[in-house]
Write a structure and sequence with these properties.
Elements lengths: L3 E4 L2 E4 L4 E7 L7 E8 L6 E6 L6 E3 L7 E6 L4 E6 L8 E9 L13 E2 L3 E6 L1
Parallel strand pairs: 2-11
Antiparallel strand pairs: 1-3, 3-8, 4-5, 4-9, 5-6, 7-8, 9-10, 9-11
Length: 125
């Protein structure tokens, strides 16, 4: 099993930036595709970004393209979510997720077997 721990959330003003981190306990981190999802109060969990095992391909929700960048450092067993130009609608709990191997459906939460506890991101207006 893989344990995931998110960090880096907090309160930021609109237009500001945050960098979220997700530390994984996987024995071989590079064998896992990674994703970020978020859930706002009263709303469904939604896909934010994903990255393949090698980091060669990335995927983004249309709502965050150009503002958010996902990356990974396999040597550190860590995936990052750099968020710039934050908007109040970005306010949510952000979850890191892992999947053993790549997939055709990175936007589907059910494709990921392992999930972190989440970290709160609040963007003030």
């Amino acid at each position: 099993q893989v344990q995931l721990v998110e960090s880096g959330g907090g309160l930021v003003q609109a237009g500001g930036s945050l960098r979220l981190s997700c530390a994984a306990s996987a024995r071989t981190f590079s064998t896992y595709a990674m994703g970020w999802f978020r859930q706002a109060p009263g709303k469904e969990r939604e896909f934010v970004a994903a990255i393949t095992r090698s980091g060669g391909s990335t995927y983004y929700a249309d709502s965050v393209k150009g503002r958010i960048t996902i990356s990974r450092d396999n040597a550190k067993n860590t995936v990052y979510l750099q968020m710039n130009s934050l908007k109040p609608e970005d306010t949510a709990v952000y979850y890191c997720a892992a999947r053993a191997g790549d997939t055709y459906y990175y936007t589907r939460g059910r494709e990921y077997a392992y999930w972190g506890q989440g970290t709160q991101v609040t963007v003030s207006s």
